[in-house]
Amino acid sequence: MKLPFIRRARHLEAVAEWADRVAKAKLRQAELAEKLKAVTEARGRELEHTRALSKLCEELKVEVAELRQREVEANPLRLTLLDRVAAARAGQFQKPQAPIPVVLCVDVEPDARVVDLADPSWRGTDVFLEKWPALRHILVKKSGAASVPLTWFPRADPQIERCNGSASFALQRYSQHWETAQAAGDEIGLHMHGWRWQEENNQWSQDHGDSVWMEHCLRSAIAEYRAHFGKAPPVYRGGDHYLDEMVLRVLREEGIALDMTLELLPTMQRLVEEESGTGCLPDCSMAPAHAYRPSVSDFTVPDLVQKEGLGILPLTPYQGGSLCLWAPNQVVDEALESIVQQHPVPTHLAFAVRSNIADTGYWESFVENTFSLARRAKEGSLRFVTASQAWQLAMSQMRGNS
Question: Is the confidence at residue 24, as pLDDT, over 80?
Answer without folding.
Answer: yes
